[in-house]
Amino acid sequence: MSKRTLIASTVMGALALTGSAVVSAATLNDLQKEEAKIHAAAAKSQEKINTLFEQSQELLVEYRQTVDQTENLKVYNDYIASLVADQQRSIDSLQRQIDSIEATKQGIVPLMFRMIDSLEKFVELDVPINLDERRERIQRLRDLMANSNVTVSEQFRQVIEAYLVEVEYGTKIQSYQGAIDDNGTNVTVDFFNLGRTALLALSLDQSNAWVWDNEARAWEKLGDEYLSSVVDAVKMANGTIPSDLIKLPIKAAE
């Protein structure tokens, strides 16, 4: 009985050791599996961390770029604002000028009418050089003033131009054809004027000559002693003979 009991105890002990080894191996496998899961989870976590880090770095770069762009836009906006302010000052200045133009027009239009009236009186009292041409110019100025399609500046320019033409008559030496009234007879002549100093007329057959008397507002017939000089004066003005000294009837300055 004791031997069988001993053998049975030995067998049970062996079985117990075998069972314990089996249990220990199963536990170890479970631990290894859990450890593998932990490593896998840790790897995934690290991967997520790496991904989040990369994203955070990209966001940081974008943030810095956004900040830089914001600063650049602020500088640019300040620049544009200064331009707009300068343009507004220019607009305000132009508006003030436009407003002043209306006031200027109110003063300059009557001035131009007075200038035309004065010019007309001057022409009628002046030596009658190119008289028809000068009268036509004054009439054109009056027509111009009544034309709504012509700007005030253009009207003023042409009025000033008419005055400049009148100034030229005092310095020009010229000859042109026209007609005079000689005691009720209309005579075609060659005119010669030495500025406003002298205005002479020579018949086309060169047999008679006249000088304009501005005080009497009439033509005065010249004697034969001036005839050849008047003929030469007309030729010199026309460029057919060279300029030379000639004798002309010129009144002394008062």
Automatic annotation (TrEMBL):
Keywords: Coiled coil, Signal. Residues 1-25 form the signal peptide. Residues 53-104 form a coiled coil. This is DUF3450 domain-containing protein.
